[in-house]
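From the shared-data thread, chain only:
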Amino acid sequence: MAASMPPEELRRAMSKLGYKTHGDLAEAIGVSRSSVSLWVQGKVGVPRPVAMLIRMMLAAQRRVY
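Structure, as tokens:
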């Protein structure tokens, strides 16, 4: 599966969403902490479905209800 989110974008998204550790994000999206660590380091690409989920989380956070 091709990656669709560069590590820099993932780090910014984690910060904007308030996730301070790889484990925090991993728990929130249901993946392992080691997967998040590999994505952040750029050793493995962020899968497209995960990138879409993170972008939807950012969009939902920006909405005014």
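The first helix runs from residue 7 to 17.
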